[in-house]
Amino acid sequence: MIKTWSTPATVQEERPIPCVLCGGSRFKKHFSYGDFRYVRCTICGLVQINPQPVPAAVRDRYGADYLSYERANETAFLRLQELALKDAGFFDDLEDYLTVREPPAVLDIGCATGALLSSLREKGWQVTGVEISRPQAEYARRERNLDVRTRPLEENRFPPDSFRAVLASHLIEHLNDPASLVREVYRILLPGGCFYVTTPNIAGFQARLLGKRWRSAIFDHLYLFSAKTLPALLRRNGFTVEKTVTWGGLAAGLAPPRIKAWADRAAKKLNRGDVMIVRARKPNEKFAGLYPHVEQPPQVRPFPNQDFRQNASGSESSGFIPLHVPTGVF
Ligand SMILES: [Zn+2]
Q1: What architecture (CATH level 2) is domain 62-214+227-284?
Q2: Which end of the chain has fewer CB within 10 Å, C or N?
Q3: What's the pTM value of the predicted model, to 2 decimals?
Q4: pLDDT tens, 153-188?
């Protein structure tokens, strides 16, 4: 099984940090891979590398190699991202808002070479990107004339209520503190705006089948979310989770095309796909009535953590196909 491309392992902190989802401090071994190991929170079931690699080492990972990787797979990644956004209702959502606020602003965090932003700009969006990999950010500015910031999201100090939509594809699993990202996205989204998060699904068929050989169990992925733990993180930070779609049954090359097509359909239908996209909305009580054509989201449940124990049963294993993963290695 060929894995997703990853940088090599680096220095780790000496002690585990509390679980980013539930604050718990007890972990069980999930599996080891090479020099690092994944653990599972005994309360909420979130799978994570903990102790973590030091943040400075994480930030230094994404250099020139990432640019060649992204450039080589740009067209395939763009197609996958647009399909995922379509499945999650992104384009329908936009049409709603085009009637009331123009042009709608979108932020893509981890925008790589800016292919998606460029495509959205052509569709009428006002686009901004965040990309900490400098070679990629420079490429996006130079070749596509895009506004791309190279600081991590939280350091950009975007004004509150700035964006109609925020996208993050194959980004959240790379961060030391994904909860901090979620809180910042909540702050900069307009009330009623949506956050679209794409990440591998550790509860998918592939991850369950392959365990540590799963292509997304790589050193660059500090967290391996499931279709339960990612929505829980979003809800816990104020969002209303509206939709979770998964896809990808078998990696290319693992089975004949007909079997793969069948597995892909089954995985999607059973919500056990290898990758997932979640649409989470910032509630818009503040503007209730201003957008009568937009359905009001249900009340936020800030701590819906009663579900956690069911989730910690060890059924946490998933598979996913990162959108930013090289097609060549699928
Ligand atoms: Zn936890």
Answers
A1: 3-Layer(aba) Sandwich (3.40)
A2: N
A3: 0.81
A4: 999 999 999 999 999 999 999 999 999 999 999 999
